[in-house]
Design goal:
The chain has 474 residues and is α/β, with parallel strands linked by helices. The chain has 2 domains: 340 residues, TIM Barrel, CATH 3.20.20; 120 residues, Galactose-binding domain-like (Jelly Rolls, Sandwich), CATH 2.60.120.260. It contains 12 helices and 18 strands. The chain is globular.
Length: 474
């Protein structure tokens, strides 16, 4: 069996499908580094430095929700080892700090705020710990780490994601820890079976840079060796490096095309996540208040990630007070407004669609315009199937959004979009590659037409479309 047919048979788990639907969510880097001005602490700073006197987790969550995000991941412990919850396995935590007179629990406050405002909650627990004496001692540290996982996964409600990076360096004793990844996963699956394990894990893959740059051809089905943790660790940064946070030109740009997978024997469903920060750094630094990314830059990142079959994890770091900075808050709100102006009303909704072929009566072209379950699938002998949307009258359009039915695999390799210039005369306005979960196609300029046609020029085993939406920005 040739490689692309094998790849076409790989399907996502329900956990991966549920994760993908989040599309756009927040990282909140907060901890000791917020108060020391560092990006990577060394674990020697006193807990007395941690004291966010105005911490308001609800302000975080409402800011993030107003920005259009559906979930929040908190850095419960970064590389410095300082814990934002009162862990019973270490004294290096909020219980030794002035915060809430030693009775505080940032994880509790944030998770409660997420539930109150219907935002999903996720946790980041750095495997590298530059403070704890057990790091570098093999099983002793691995048990400590798993105990902390158990605390986070049993005491704070439903967790949508456990985010594990590949950071691995020396501990206090100068030794590097060998992580028990399989043991970590076992704990997560037992305690939070619906949580996606991201980046150094089996469910979600790191896009390969921290600049917010996605691939135009992003395949969720890749050779299985990309899911080996050592691959992610090798590509991860080994030191705090500003250039690394901006660099993307070394990213492998093709992971899943027929050429890229030639010779591979096993494949996995391993979708990508694109992560970046709204600021130059991951933690809040006052001197970066004037360097918050612009709304236009955030839109470019959104289209490059969410618009190219990835998910976007945008870091929003709270400040020393324990609040999202006003600049960041206003930028998020403005970005959400721009999104709504760019994609205000689906002009294809409640219109009619037809195709050159349909598998059967349950998989008609009309399904792609419906808000209900159902999708279109072409007949098996239709090599270049087309779907046409009739808008009933000339309508101005400047973008299209397509979604493949990824529950049956990722299959479409290339497609083109045409508009009817005059009856029976069509002009191409876009030529693109893969679709996957979602593909956003902005047109170079708007067109006024009654009909739009999508022609699938190459697919693997079967071509499916779940949704086809058309927009005109305001």
């Amino acid at each position: 069996m040739c490689e692309y047919i094998k790849a076409a048979q790989v399907l996502p788990s329900k956990r991966q499908l549920d994760w993908q639907k989040n599309e756009f969510y927040a990282f909140c880097h907060f901890g000791m580094n917020t108060f020391t001005g560092k990006e990577w602490g060394d674990g020697t700073d006193s807990p007395s430095k941690f004291n966010p006197t105005e911490l308001d987790a609800e302000q975080w969550v409402t800011s993030i929700k107003s920005g259009g995000m559906k979930a929040l991941i908190l850095t419960c412990k970064h590389h410095d080892g300082f814990c934002l919850w009162p862990s019973k396995y270490t004294d290096y935590s909020v219980k030794a700090s002035p915060f809430r007179d030693g009775g505080g629990d940032v994880v509790r406050e944030v998770s409660d705020a997420c539930r109150k405002h219907s935002i999903k909650f996720g946790v980041y627990l750095s495997p590298w710990d530059r403070h704890d004496e057990r790091y570098g001692k093999g099983g002793e540290y691995n048990e400590y780490y798993k105990n902390q996982l158990r605390e986070l996964l049993t005491n704070y409600g439903d967790i949508f994601c456990v985010w594990l990076d590949g950071a691995c360096g020396e501990g206090k004793n100068g030794k590097v820890q060998e992580y028990d990844w399989a043991g970590y996963y076992k704990v997560i699956r037992e305690l939070q079976p619906n949580a996606a394990i991201c980046i150094c894990g089996p469910d979600v893959r790191w896009v390969g840079n921290e600049a917010g740059v996605g691939r135009e051809s992003e395949w969720s089905v890749v050779p299985s060796y990309y899911a080996v943790n050592e691959f992610t660790q090798e590509k991860s940064q080994k030191e705090d490096n500003k250039k690394f946070r901006k660099k993307h030109n070394e990213m492998v740009m093709d992971l899943g095309s027929r050429k890229a997978i030639k010779g591979a024997e096993e494949f996995v469903w391993y979708p990508s996540e694109t992560d970046t920060s709204i600021r130059p750094g991951w933690f809040y630094h006052e001197n970066e208040d004037h360097r918050v990314k612009s709304v236009d830059k955030l839109m470019d990142i959104y289209l490059s990630s969410v618009g190219n079959n990835s998910a976007l994890l945008l870091n929003i770091p709270p400040d020393k007070r324990g609040l999202i900075c006003k600049t960041d808050e206003l930028t998020l709100d403005s970005f959400a407004r721009k999104l709504k102006r760019t994609f205000p009303e689906n002009l294809a909704e409640n219109k009619s669609a037809y195709a050159t072929s349909e598998k059967d009566e349950a998989h008609t072209a009309q399904n792609v315009l419906s808000q209900f379950d159902g999708y279109w699938e072409c007949a098996s002998d239709d090599e270049t199937p087309e779907i046409t949307v009739d808008l009933e009258e000339p309508t101005e359009i400047d973008s299209a959004v397509l979604m493949e039915n990824i529950a049956t695999g990722q299959q479409i390799e290339s497609f083109e979009i045409y508009y009817e210039k005059k009856p029976g005369k069509w002009k191409r306005i876009a030529k693109k590659t893969v679709i996957g979960y979602k593909k956003i196609v902005p047109f170079k300029k708007s067109v006024k037409t009654r009909k739009i046609k999508v022609k699938i020029t190459s697919y693997r085993v079967k071509a499916t479309v779940l949704k086809l939406e058309l927009y005109k920005s305001k």
